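ok trying again, last paste got cut off:
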Amino acid sequence: MQVSPKIAILGAALLVAASLTGCAGGGGNNSNSDNGSSAGPASASSGSSGEAAGSKQPITLTMLAQRSGQNGPYKDMLVFQEYEKKTNIHVEWTDVPASGFAEKKNLVFASNELPDAFFKAGITPTEAIKYGTSGMLMPLEDLIAKDAPNISKLFEQYPEVLKALTAPDGHIYALSDIVTLDNARIGLKPWINRQWLQKLGLKEPTTTDELLNVLRAFRDNDPNGNGQKDEIPILAADLGSLVGGISGSFGLQNQMGYHINVDDEGKVKVWLADDRYKQMLMYLHQLYQEKLLDNEIISQDQPTWLSKLNSGKVGMFYIQEGAAFEKLKDQYIGTIPVKGPNGDQMVGSVAPIARSFGAFAISSVNKYPDETMKWLDYFYGDEGSIFFRFGVEGKTYHIGDDGLPYFNDDILNDPRGAGNAEGQITPYPGGGSPEWINDKNSSGINSPEGIAATERLQPYLPKKVYAAPLLDASSNDRLDNLRRDIDTYADESQAKFIVGNLSFDKWDEYVNTLKKMHLDEVEQIYQQAFDKLYK
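nice, full thing came through this time. structure:
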């Protein structure tokens, strides 16, 4: 990877910043200089907790944001209302539901009607290179070195994050969250209803065949005891979550941000045409056909899924955090991945530390890039990351006996569900926000149940997790063109195979179509990227 002089000195800049902040003092009254750039308070430059860096004069920024099913309107979120008071920076939000966000994002780039920044934006590596090299997204490395002591410190501690975010031209066009909590990097933990297991005299399943039998028992034997056949044996938010949750049982991982396995010799394999993928689809089709899998998985939206999750009618599901089913958490236990027909037993989807690439970017029309970066950096510090996830102490959370923040009971016991209640306060439910996730600010997902679930999964984690690569412009354009058609066809075919609208007699035809779409070239591009980054 070619490294520009700016990036080459960034590591040194981080060390200099760290040494300077060690002797910083004073309060939080620093203001903008005459040229309009914001020199945040000394405590915010400490690279640790610090206060939010503010602006002397009121500033308005426009931001385009993705709103998950658990989130309320951004303008009404307590976190942003309070943050405006701290910083004197007002944000005019255009927050779009997740189902329509990609279309909206594409539209603003195509029309060049850009916001000042993108928040929780899911900007893909392809988009970062395309819009970064074309000048629509602003390079961030100088701003980070100058205005973001918290992010700089994390880059120093976790150099793999800097590598994952740096484009081949040496620039950083988009930031990710930074996840140093293992619990949060396993986003699709398997949870099973232990009360139902106990009631029916069943053991936790350890193989795919045993799982079939357990799910059939959940379907047929009224384990919720209401006299109705209304149980949902296995629930998933969507097909992607289902496939990601069970793929490890068929030897399939999700490396480099795609449907990729990487073996011990560094050989990259895109598995969309692999026989093990066919085996998995046939298994999922059986679940769907026998109504062991919720048959609304294709059409349901996230609020509907969350409602089902908290209905007391679900036997098994894949999800990261216990907050989404807080009131029912005693019913469930984190279980292990089942062993598949070929002896595979692993967690197929584990995120890198730079988990959600493209969570934040600054556009070229932004008149206040320094202030914007300082505004963001607070969420990557000790104090700011707690504020971002929990809101205001005494109002929405309290500090427990263990010294960690916990949401107050009125939020945890909200009739809408804790996850939905939290999503009215902060955008973090649903994932993908620009923030630092660590063991000091994540009591909701790092509960004793979550910790126990993660510990049970440790033996089944991949040895290494590789982030999605950032490619040079030419390779990026080629991969984008190839994947656009391949991904659409593969996703449509996946759904058809699972629900039975496409016979497995057509598998060879499906594979041949992928070959004609140059799936082998996609694999070659990823192999070359892997070799440059990791060999």
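cool. The chain has 22 helices and 14 strands. The longest strand covers residues 59-67.
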